[in-house]
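Final report, results section. Input specification for complex C-07:
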Amino acid sequence: MFNDEQLCSKLRGVKWHNTLHLYPLTSGELTTKKNLNDYLIWDNKIKKMLFSNYDLAKLLMFCDGLNSTKEIIKKICKGNKKQNYIKKQIAQSLQKLYEDKIIVFQKNPNKVPIRIRTNNLKYPLNMAYLELTQNCNFSCIHCYLNAPDFTKRRRITELTTKQYFKIIDLLDGLGVISIIVTGGEPFLRKDILDILNYINSKHISLSILTNGSLLKDKDIQQLKMLGLKKIAISLDSHLEKTFKKIRNPTTYKKVVTNIRKIIAYKIPLEINAVLFKNLNNSYNHLTNFFVFLKKLGLKRKNITCDIFMPVGAGKNKRYLKLDEIGTLNNLDLAYRRVFHRSYIQKQKESINNKTYNSFCGVGREMIYIGSEGNIFLCPGLRNDDLLLGNIFKDNFKGIWANPSLFKYFRNKTYLEDSECKSCRFVKLCDGGCKARAMHFYGKLNSKDSWMCAYYERNKR
Amino acid sequence: MNMKNKKQETDVKRIKNFNPKYEVVKNDEDNARGCKCSS
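Structure output:
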């Protein structure tokens, strides 16, 4: 058996013997949740989310500040012959957790809580979109909601602050680990910060989707205090005239100013760009756009691109549908030129030794709650004919356990009579985005040609 | 009793192959994901 010094020499860069009598502990805001095949771990202080296997989740449960490293090893090794192997595994894992800033070591015992979010549903629900309003001060040509222009008319139906608190309580009780606040434009609500604070008090991962035009300095300061997983701002072009064509005539400068402020405050920011044919999908435009964002201080990981879908306000604008393969080529080349990295991510192995699957989780682990309390599958499938029920009128557990939903999404029935069935990439995308399939080809089980192009290019 | 033995067996099996693994979920992984809100 290794002694501590020998074990230390096996771990490059770690003075392992120094940590044996120290107490590893997490930030105190760590939540673990058992998923179907793995564990989902969220740290609300350092804003990191992990997928882990059972063993790592078990190891983390010991990192509560009351067990020294030596005691953890002793407890896990108890009654086992392979002690050297286990000791090495624990040492390596603690080292990696320390490097990723998920744990720290302390000299004295100091208990910190570790929350276990129980899953009360047969199929775990991890993520919820929460639509705070349908009103918006923009009038985007592609808005999936077809949100009414706030300056011209306003929809009356909107839930109250208390009703949102009730929804958040319900989601918390159901084991939701991540909430994405969206709209309309959520910052049109005066109680937005109260709602965000309430979500944060539940130790749930919080992200916001906004157009960024209504943020005041005070709001940005509050958001910094609040701690967000990310704030996502829609920006599709560095050119004011293109922005005007897509979004709104007057607010380009305000949005860019707020982006600068958010970067200055070091709030995690993501730029969401939607690409359209002949508007912003050319190589030159994308290159200049990325150069503009890079100059603002953004990195490759802060930018995501989606494509136009003919739904809502864009329903009769099929002429904006782009050529997927050509656009993806332009996107990839522009990324390479500006960020020196490919837009296409190499496939990696997941923690269960299965290939990483890019399916978003629609019908399996996420839900969309509209501003009237209506429940939908996802933001892109917000059609009235796909309404699942109402959070105040119907039993949510009953809706989530809906046999047809189970069968269709969770057993992947949609693949059975789909052209995706015989595709060589089906294990990577599980059929891709069902909203794109629905809106471009009319059926949920149709292919998602954006994903097809993505994986086709990935294999090159 | 049988259930208890079975649980103990599973625990022993797990510990024998003790192999903690995790991956940090990165924001940019959404690139590959289908779901993006374009509001």
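The two ends of chain B are 56 Å apart (CA to CA). Strands of chain B lie at 22-24. This concludes the modelling results for the funded period.
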